[in-house]
């Protein structure tokens, strides 16, 4: 009687190494930043109208939806690569969302304040901010329009993704998350231009590096799934 065949060992595709490195760099930056906040030469605390406060508020909103989408697809997909990516996005952005909340608590600032992206007015970061950048006579964009500028998915798009199954759902998730990441990168770039808090600048650069790498990975996954 022959012995049962040994199942093949599944190896991650090469682009997963890039993601793991990116996440490792982000984790190291997080640890360094947390320890550095206890230094005696800390800069002045950011105020409620500062770029740092605006970034922390807006990115909590932004990351919240990313975590929601990632957990939705994590629970339903049968594609192991999608599951790994969704788990990484959910855990990484949950941790960052908590840190943004903590910044505002430590700075003694409210968790909400002002229109979305209003703090980005002076940054050349690729966003169109309606009245903020077009003069007093321009009509201010609605919150829904600002959400779209941030790359956020609409309620209808989220519902459609949840109603889909199989490869269709995976492809919808990848498309929505790529757009979502593309909305976060200009926000982080704006903070690098306008901000001064060392920890906030470190996190902003980490957002750029990690989410740029994930966009490349998700594009590769789209090609592998032959997403239309």
Describe it.
The protein is an all-alpha fold. The chain has 8 helices and no strands. It has helices spanning 14-36, 51-76, 80-106, 131-134, 143-149, 155-163, 166-194, 198-225. Helix 1 (14-36) runs antiparallel to helix 8 (198-225), helix 2 (51-76) packs antiparallel against helix 3 and helix 2 runs antiparallel to helix 7. It is elongated and about 50 Å long.
Structural class: mainly alpha
SSE succession:
HHHHHHHH
Q: What would you call the shape?
A: elongated
Strand content bin: under 5%
How would you state the average pLDDT, rounded?
Answer: 83
Count the E strands: 0
Low-pLDDT residue spans: 7-11, 27-40, 124-137
| Structure annotation, total helices | 8
Fraction of residues in helix: 55-70%
Which oligomerization state do the chains in this entry correspond to? Answer: single chain
**Major sheet details:** none
Features:
single chain; 228 residues; mainly alpha; 8 helices; elongated
List the helices and strands and how they pair.
Layout: H1 14-36, H2 51-76, H3 80-106, H4 131-134, H5 143-149, H6 155-163, H7 166-194, H8 198-225
Helix pairs in contact: 1-8, 2-3, 2-7, 6-7, 7-8
Brief characterization of the structure:
The protein has 228 residues and is mainly α.
């Amino acid at each position: 009687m022959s012995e049962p065949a040994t199942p093949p060992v599944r190896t991650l595709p090469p682009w997963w190494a890039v993601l793991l490195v990116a996440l490792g760099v982000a984790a190291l930056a997080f640890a360094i930043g947390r320890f550095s906040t206890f230094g005696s030469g800390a800069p002045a605390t950011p105020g409620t109208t500062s770029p740092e406060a605006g970034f922390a508020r807006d990115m909590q909103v932004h990351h919240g939806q990313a975590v929601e989408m990632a957990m939705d697809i994590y629970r339903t997909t049968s594609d192991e690569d999608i599951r790994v990516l969704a788990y990484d996005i959910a855990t990484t952005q949950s941790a960052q969302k908590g840190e943004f909340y903590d910044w505002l608590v430590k700075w003694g600032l409210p968790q909400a304040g002002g229109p979305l992206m209003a703090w980005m007015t002076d940054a050349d970061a690729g966003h169109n901010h309606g009245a903020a950048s077009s003069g007093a006579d321009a009509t201010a964009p609605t919150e829904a329009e600002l959400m779209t500028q941030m790359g956020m998915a609409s309620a209808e798009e989220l519902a459609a993704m949840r109603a889909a199954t199989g490869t269709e759902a995976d492809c919808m998730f990848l498309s929505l998350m790529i757009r979502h990441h593309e909305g976060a990168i200009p926000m982080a770039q704006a903070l690098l231009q306008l901000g001064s808090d060392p920890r906030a600048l470190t996190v902003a650069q980490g957002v750029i590096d990690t989410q740029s790498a994930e966009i490349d990975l998700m594009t590769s996954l789209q090609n592998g799934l032959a997403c239309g």
